[in-house]
Specification:
By secondary structure, the protein is mainly α. The protein has two domains: about 15-55, no CATH class; about 60-170, AhpD-like (Up-down Bundle). It is built from nine helices and no strands. Helix 4 (about 60-75) runs antiparallel to helix 5 and helix 7 (about 115-130) crosses helix 9 (about 150-170).
Amino acid sequence: MPIIKTVSPDEATGDLAMYYRKIKAMRGSVGNNAMLFSSVPELLRQQMDFVTYYANHPTLPMSLLAAIRVMVSDEESCGYCTDYNTMMLVNMAGWTPKQVSDMRVDVNAAPLEAREKALLTLVLKSVRSAHDVSREDIDALRKMGWDDAQIFDAVHHGARMLSTDILLNTFKIEKD
């Protein structure tokens, strides 16, 4: 049970009810992760915008983005997000549960292209110890064909995932 009051879809009014309707239309239900944001509906809207932006990203593959979320959430011990994004990799990207499990042990085991693994590795480095990221790290990604916008987007995605994990863990949001 969460240690912060959340508003269920049945109790929601105003903007929150509208956001919940949109979430239900997209996903079939309103998850506990969305209800976490119910005390501040504007932040739920921002979270929805974040999810929509990355769900339709023009150049970063869904499998890479979901791998970022799994790896960041795994390190933060956020079972909710790790499990949710593992299922995305299995159900939407065609990965096997073993492939996800292997990646969680060794990022190089991920069934991604070498350049995608390099970008994933940089994201993990940035969320672990941002001060250790160097110009050489960024230049190496550029040499692999990543542009600055893609690098920024990937790191931003990892950083936002970390903040989401912290919120879900802090307020003890349970899996649906």
